Amino acid sequence: QEQLVESGGGLVRPGDSLRLSCAASGFTFSSYFMTWFRQAPGKELEWVSSIKPRGDTTYYSDSVKGRFTISRDNTKDTLYLQMNHLKPEDTAVYYCVKGSSPSAPRGQGTQVTVSS
Q: Residue 97 pLDDT more than 90?
């Protein structure tokens, strides 16, 4: 069955960096648009970034543009999110999904906490 497993989160200080990974299995990863969402405590799910199947086109929310970079390795069926210059407002559980729908099935997520 299809599975998405996020990893790489942690507790960091403002200005630090983290790299999230999302290991995909059970579907042809290289054929799908992929998306990162995040959900902060008490808030709705928020779109962060998306990438086309071949990785040649990427999209970012205004809140992360210029700080985050989405990428993928289709040989490893893995999606990445490089997060630089992290801010406290980036604190959230980060999820990857196949496609772009916020209602798409997602994994357990990975917690990112940015705090001094």
A: yes
